[in-house]
Amino acid sequence: MTGATPQGNIPIRPHAVTTAARIRQPKNCAPARHARHPRDMGAAEIEAFLSHLAGQRNVSAKMSRRLPVVLTEREVRELLLQLNGTTSLVASLLYGTGMRLLEGLRLRIKDVEFTRREILIHASKGNKDRVTVLPDALAQKYPRGVLSPFDKL
Fold it and tell me: Phi-psi bin for 71: left (phi > 0), alpha (psi -120 to 50), beta?
């Protein structure tokens, strides 16, 4: 069906309207006819809905096919012994404190409290500050008052 618009001789293309409608409405999505809040539903209805999502809509959580690689204590020790300088310090901090990579790279000397054996981590995940423990091995290896790689960070 083609025709002219009231403004002039611009043709109306019906396929453009149906294409736009298809973009807005996903293929396998039926309109919500009887949408209700889950607290108003029974256990059987919720279970049926979740089964529908998993079985017919393919939105179930899929398990990862890869297993995580975890090093043994001996392998970690050997790896850390191969590193030196700032790289060794950062790797030891990440392993010993559980810090994330960017947390370790953003660390400043004023964030390390040697007397209380604590590290203050600013703007962590969720933009929150948190405190973690300074491992004894690092506190003994880099005592405050001695020039250490912490002073360069």
Answer: beta
For 23-39, write each residue's pLDDT tens digit. Answer: 444 555 555 566 778 78
SS3 of residue 120 by DSSP? strand
Task: Convert the pLDDT of each residue in 75-124 to its tens digit.
Answer: 999 999 999 988 988 999 999 999 999 999 999 888 988 888 999 999 88
Delineate the domains of the chain, giving CATH numbers in brackets. Answer: 73-143 (1.10.443.10)
CA distance 98 to 148: 21
CA atoms within 13 A on the CB side of 68: 4
* Average pLDDT value for the chain: 77
What are the φ and ψ backbone dihedral angles of 126, each rounded to 5 degrees?
A: 80, 15
Task: Give the number of residues written for the chain.
Answer: 153
Q: Which amino acid is at 146?
A: V
Q: How many CA atoms are closer than 13 Å to the CA of 34, on its beta-carbon side?
A: 4
The contacts of residue 71 (CB under 8 Å, 6+ apart) are 79
Q: Assess contact for 82 and 74: CB atoms under 8 A.
A: no
Is 146 within 8 Å of 138 (Cβ atoms)? no
Give mean pLDDT, residues 36-49: 84
